[in-house]
Amino acid sequence: MGAAMRQSEFDKLSVALDSTEFALRLLQKKAVELRRKRDSAKTQEELESLDSDAAVLLQRLRKIGEAIHSGNPAPHLRLLLDVDL
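^ thats the sequence. predicted structure below, dont judge the formating
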């Protein structure tokens, strides 16, 4: 039973890591898109809108960062199902 529990925990961590990797890739794509849009922005209103979008992106990155528990010798992740991208 101990091996099965370890495998179950491993599976949960694997899913969480996969979910995190996917979320980070999406955020990276959005960051590249925001940079491109910012470089082509022509008005202050466009820049303000993009700054708002960037703030949301940073908030999502913080959520992912908070999901990582680095105080443990073996950091783990909470499932990130509530991170909407």
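The chain has a mean pLDDT of 80.
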